[in-house]
Recover the amino acids of this structure.
């Protein structure tokens, strides 16, 4: 990018990250407005996105976000699960509002709703899934920055970031690069030092896969076996203590029980005789 300072140019490491996350893989269909961002078309029909164009639009979006004085006036939205963790991490690191999950109709237009917001800028993860947010933003003149694939519609989108928004790794990397560039432009993070937040923190993780990894690593023991083992161990310890003290004798216990029963029976007979004498 010759029209910007050299410090904003992409490094070889940044391009390698985009390629390793498969952020350059588009769809088999292409929108007419996304043709300038397409590098070429493979033999299998998949369109390849130019990663240099992706970096240029990331820097442009970061400059727009950094120009807003109050970070809370920026709203990042993702209704798809693959981008919910990324928007939450982006909001936590930059101070923006994050809407992860279903976008409630009327958030930008109906001031009576509890979650009514008046942001100055919104960032969209998918133009199809977040169409409601884009439509409401157009009603109230809110600028829209969107992650767009080759087949995404650019209607009511002001800044399109060409990226593979169907991949959880590409979405996470895109938000990580965007957050890092915003912090650098604000002066919070120096360009000479690496960001201590790993890009893995922005990736979506399936809860079922996490449970399988924990079971494979042995982090989640079986509760039933532990309970039975603990009960058996406690019983064995109690028997061992009783035998060591010499207080437990089955024969003595049976004899004492018989003696107590006989004494009780004799007392009961005596009481019966007294009662009968009183009646006479």
């Amino acid at each position: 990018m010759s029209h910007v300072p050299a410090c904003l140019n992409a490094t070889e490491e940044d391009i390698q990250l985009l390629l390793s996350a498969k952020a350059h893989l588009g769809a088999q269909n292409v929108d007419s407005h996304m043709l300038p961002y397409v590098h070429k078309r493979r033999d299998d029909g998949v369109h390849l996105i130019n990663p240099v164009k992706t970096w240029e639009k990331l820097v442009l979006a970061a400059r727009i976000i950094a120009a807003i004085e109050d970070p809370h006036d920026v709203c990042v939205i993702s209704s798809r699960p693959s981008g919910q963790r990324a928007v939450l991490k982006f909001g936590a690191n930059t101070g923006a509002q994050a809407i992860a999950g279903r976008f409630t109709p009327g958030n930008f237009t109906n001031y009576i709703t509890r979650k009514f917001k008046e942001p100055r800028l919104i960032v969209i993860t998918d133009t199809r899934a977040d169409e409601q947010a884009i439509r409401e933003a157009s009603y109230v003149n809110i600028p829209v920055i969107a992650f767009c694939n080759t087949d995404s519609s650019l209607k009511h989108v002001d800044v399109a970031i060409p990226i593979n928004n169907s991949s959880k790794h590409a979405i996470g990397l895109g938000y990580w690069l965007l957050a890092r560039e915003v912090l650098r432009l604000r002066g919070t993070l120096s360009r000479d030092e690496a960001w201590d937040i790993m890009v893995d923190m922005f990736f979506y993780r399936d809860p079922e896969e996490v449970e399988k990894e924990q079971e494979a690593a042995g982090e989640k023991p079986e509760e039933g076996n532990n309970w039975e083992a603990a009960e058996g161990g406690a019983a064995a310890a109690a028997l061992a203590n009783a035998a060591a003290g010499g207080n437990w004798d089955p024969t003595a216990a049976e004899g004492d029980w018989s003696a107590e029963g006989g004494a009780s029976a004799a007392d009961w007979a005596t009481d019966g005789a007294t009662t009968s004498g009183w009646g006479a």
About this structure: The radius of gyration is 35 Å. The longest strand covers residues 74-78.
